[in-house]
Design goal:
By secondary structure, the protein is of the alpha/beta class. It is built from 13 helices and 10 strands.
């Protein structure tokens, strides 16, 4: 219906693209024909806002496979998401009841839906490598997320490790206030996905001056370069992740130096992001464009 209206010149069509994961890493995706159908709108869309430069680059390449059905060019731009929700939650009234066991403890935080793309299994194994070296460590690892898809093997492994080692903890169905408390009180964030369109937990952690261990690839490497505060790893290498966990937990000087590199002066607020998207939808594309493709 929308394509028909656009072909007839009755509407202007703008889109937001979060990632192309079902094409670039289909083995980690639970999305099929619906995603493919959604992307057929690229045949008639006037503009696309991507949530990172990495996604904009991927989409520009992908457009070479798309047969356009209108003569006008499509304009692809990168409009970074915001990560400032934690600022509004930062006036803590105390430890949430469900998290009191974490009060006055040291913990690394892992945030994300339990699904293969988030790479939780390698993160868990990295923490086990760290604990095998530092057997008496008081560092805990908190996995905060809800069950997603293709996660049976990981959840079996995670639940087994939780039973055998009290330093491994899982929380699901967290409120914004609970998640904010975890960000505020964690020692650092571990976010080493195989693929992200953006990587919102990275920015959320940086807003609260928490260092981050993240993947060197794609949008995660992009955010680390743009905003600082991150140690980069190969997400496929648990030993490398374990080494960075060791650094952030034991080297206070490195932690302090890393925190001084955080610069969020160019990070948009959610209000600014919403205004940018509204402007693109109502008035066409404004600001710096990354590319135009036929």
């Amino acid at each position: 219906f929308y394509k028909m209206l656009r072909r007839n010149g009755a509407i202007r069509l703008s889109m937001i693209v979060y990632d192309l994961g079902p094409f670039s890493l289909p083995e980690y995706s639970a999305v099929g024909q619906n995603f493919t159908h959604y992307l057929t709108l690229l045949r008639v869309a006037d503009s696309v806002s991507c949530i990172s430069e990495s996604v904009a680059s991927d989409l520009t390449s992908f457009m070479g496979l798309v047969v356009r059905e209108v003569p006008e060019k499509i304009t692809i731009s990168a409009d970074l998401l915001a990560g400032d929700f934690t600022k509004s939650q930062n006036q803590s009234l105390g430890t949430p009841a469900r998290l009191t066991a974490l009060d006055c403890t040291k913990f690394a935080l892992v945030v994300g839906t339990f699904e293969p793309r988030k790479n939780h299994q390698n993160i868990l194994r990295a923490f086990k490598v760290y604990l095998s070296i530092h057997k008496d460590s008081d560092l805990q690892m908190v996995f905060a997320g809800n069950p997603g898809w293709k996660n049976d093997n990981f959840l079996l492994e995670l639940n087994r490790e939780i039973k055998s080692d009290s330093r491994i903890i899982k929380y699901a169905s967290l409120t914004d206030a609970e998640l904010s408390w975890l960000y505020e009180h964690c020692r650092f964030l571990v976010f080493c996905s195989h693929l992200e369109g953006f990587g919102l937990p990275i920015l959320e952690a940086l807003f609260l001056k928490k260092p981050v261990i993240t993947s060197a690839r794609g949008s995660m490497g992009e955010l680390a370069k743009k905003f600082g505060g991150c140690l980069l790893v190969n997400p496929l290498n648990p030993v490398e992740i374990a080494n960075q966990i060791e650094k952030l937990n034991h080297d206070d000087l490195l932690r302090e130096q890393l925190l001084t590199t955080i610069d969020l002066s160019k990070a948009p607020s959610w209000d600014q992001y919403a205004q940018t998207i509204l402007n693109r939808s109502l008035m066409g594309v404004s600001g710096k464009m990354l590319t135009s493709a036929t």
